[in-house]
UniProtKB/TrEMBL annotation, chain A:
Matches recorded under SMART domains: Sybindin (SM01399)
Keywords carried by this UniProt record: Endoplasmic reticulum, ER-Golgi transport, Golgi apparatus, Transport
Domain of life: Eukaryota
UniProt protein name: Trafficking protein particle complex subunit
One Pfam family matching this protein: Sybindin
Subcellular localization, as worded in the UniProt entry: Endoplasmic reticulum; Golgi apparatus, cis-Golgi network; Golgi apparatus
GO biological process assignments: endoplasmic reticulum to Golgi vesicle-mediated transport
Assembly and binders: Part of the multisubunit transport protein particle (TRAPP) complex.
Gene that this sequence comes from: LOC101752919
Main location per the UniProt record: endoplasmic reticulum
Family: Belongs to the TRAPP small subunits family. TRAPPC4 subfamily.
A cellular component term, taken from the record's GO annotations: endoplasmic reticulum
TrEMBL record, chain B:
Database matches in SUPFAM superfamilies: Ligand-binding domain in the NO signalling and Golgi transport
Subunit relationships: Homodimer.
Pfam families, A to Z: TRAPP
Gene Ontology biological process: endoplasmic reticulum to Golgi vesicle-mediated transport; intra-Golgi vesicle-mediated transport
UniProt function note: May play a role in vesicular transport from endoplasmic reticulum to Golgi.
Name of the protein this chain belongs to: Trafficking protein particle complex subunit
Protein keywords: Endoplasmic reticulum, ER-Golgi transport, Golgi apparatus, Transport
Gene3D superfamilies xref list: Trafficking protein particle complex subunit 3 (3.30.1380.20)
CC annotations in GO: cis-Golgi network membrane; cytosol; endoplasmic reticulum; TRAPP complex
Similarity-based family: Belongs to the TRAPP small subunits family. BET3 subfamily.
Source taxonomy: Eukaryota, Viridiplantae, Streptophyta, Embryophyta, Tracheophyta
Length: 143, 187
């Protein structure tokens, strides 16, 4: 079985601004402008999907499946969105997103020098995130 | 693996978070209040500052609570109040509150705390009778609820430091800000 990999990770604040972007492989690497544009587009599409839903109470897109990649999105009740772009068939992405959300609350929000809604520049967050993603890859290798 | 969405119980939640020595916590808070009194001189100003500090904490804390407790969206304000009393207080203070005195519309209620770790060792001197020593707590609740689109007003009704038999915090829901985007306001 092919190894499923994460291509990139985005975190957007409640107003649709990109506050964190990280890519994990050279394929499809984006410059700052493109990643910002993509993030706000996703924010809008997420909002539109709620309007499209024929059943009230829709909270937006959780998973976008494309021919050759998947996008898993998690939105917290406070409006922050975290999404990963990964290979098709990557497993346990919901769990991964939840873990990333916990890391965000621990190492970003609890950092007294982090300004809310602003781009994330927290070394501890980077470090712990790298570990989690690494572990995720190891788990995948083990299967 | 348990389902991702199963909410934790108050005890499980309390067991899962890191804790510090209770005295360190209580004494640190005492030192902050003391310093504010020295800096601001006016008791009223200190109350305001404590509330503002609590608000700033609450806006950040709410995400941690949501991330670690696995609670999902509450259907109404009643459920929200219960979640705060049973899970929120337990997770961060190690105590639970009782929710009582609902008004007829279900928009305001009281949290009653029998036990409050912030006030161990505290005796309010005569010069500080107007001080809302625990104002940080009301600020936290106001800030946290605002992040999940509920505007509230939080006031203290009973305070053991002033001779009452318990701590009672009144929470009034002022308005629920809709989360939807205002698509239809172009006319």
């Amino acid at each position: 079985m092919a190894l499923a990999a994460i291509y990139s990770l985005f975190i957007i604040n409640k107003s649709g601004g990109l506050i964190y972007y990280k890519d994990y492989c050279s394929a499809g690497r984006m410059d700052t402008n493109d990643s910002l544009r993509l993030a706000s587009l996703w924010h809008s599409m997420h909002a539109i999907s709620q309007q499209l839903s024929p059943i009230p109470g829709c909270t937006g897109i959780d998973l976008l499946q494309a021919h050759n990649f998947n996008l898993h999105c998690f939105q917290s009740l406070t409006g922050t969105k975290i999404f990963v772009v990964c290979e098709t068939g990557a497993q346990n992405m919901e769990t991964l997103l939840k873990v990333i959300y916990e890391l965000y609350t621990d190492f970003v929000l609890k950092n007294p020098f982090y300004e809310m809604e602003m781009p994330i520049r927290c070394e501890l967050f980077d470090l712990n995130l790298a570990q989690v993603i690494q572990k995720d890859r190891v788990a995948l290798l083990g299967r | 693996m348990p389902p991702l969405t199963a909410p934790k119980s108050g005890d499980a939640l309390f067991a899962s978070v890191d804790r510090v020595n209770a005295e360190l916590f209580t004494l640190t808070y005492g030192a902050i209040v003391r310093q504010l009194l020295t800096d601001l001189e006016e008791v009223e100003e200190v109350n305001k500052q404590l509330d503002q500090m609590g608000y700033n904490i609450g806006t950040r804390l709410v995400d941690e609570f949501l991330a670690k407790s696995n609670v999902s969206r509450c259907v109404d304000f009643k459920e929200t109040a219960d979640v705060i009393a049973k899970l929120g207080f337990k997770m961060f203070l190690g105590v639970t509150a009782t929710v009582t005195n609902w008004d007829a519309e279900g928009t305001s209620c009281s949290f009653v705390l029998e036990d409050n770790p912030l006030v161990d060792f505290v005796e309010l001197p005569d010069t500080c009778q107007g001080l809302q020593y625990c104002n940080v707590l009301s600020g936290v609740i106001r800030g946290a609820l605002e992040m999940v689109s509920m505007k509230t007003e939080v006031t203290w009704v009973r305070d053991m430091l002033r001779g009452d038999d318990a701590y009672e915090m009144r929470v009034k829901l002022i308005k629920q800000v809709p989360e939807e985007y205002p698509y239809k306001d172009d006319d």
